[in-house]
């Protein structure tokens, strides 16, 4: 078998071990929690404006701000970017 196959095979072994909870040396990125209401307030945007500008539904935004849901996955990553570099995100989306 070739080098590419061995690399893929090794990656699959590591992924399976990680999924079983075994220590594999795999680095997992865990985005930090974001206070969505504070970020929105700092930007001076209404819920409608914030949701429209960044592609969230207003209903979802309200759930996050009330605390009955927490952003996860790509939404949480985007919110971390908005919190740290809002102008860069707005430029990228315009």
Explained architecture:
It is a single chain. The chain has helices at residues 3-19, 36-43, 47-54, 58-66, 73-84, 86-93. The protein is mainly alpha-helical. The protein is elongated and about 55 Å long.
Termini separation comes to: 47 Å
Spatial shape? elongated
Number of helices: 6
* Helix share, percent: 55-70%
What would the average pLDDT be, to the nearest integer?
93
What order do the SSEs take from the amino end to the carboxyl end, as H and E? Answer: HHHHHH
- CA gyration radius, whole angstroms: 19 Å
| Low-confidence spans | none
Per DSSP E runs of 2 or more residues, the count of β-strands stands at 0
Largest sheet: none
Helix and strand composition category: mainly alpha
**Beta-strand content bin:** under 5%
List key phrases describing it.
94 residues; mainly alpha
Q: Layout of SSEs?
A:
Layout: H1 3-19, H2 36-43, H3 47-54, H4 58-66, H5 73-84, H6 86-93
């Amino acid at each position: 078998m070739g080098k590419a196959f061995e690399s893929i095979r090794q990656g699959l072994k590591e992924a399976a071990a990680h999924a079983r909870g075994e220590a594999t040396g795999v680095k997992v990125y865990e985005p930090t929690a974001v206070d969505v209401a504070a970020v929105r307030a700092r930007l001076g945007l209404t819920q409608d404006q914030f949701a429209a500008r960044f592609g969230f539904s207003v209903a979802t935004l309200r759930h996050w701000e009330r605390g009955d849901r927490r952003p996860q996955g790509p939404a949480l990553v985007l919110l971390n970017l908005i919190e740290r570099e809002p102008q860069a995100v707005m430029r990228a989306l315009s």
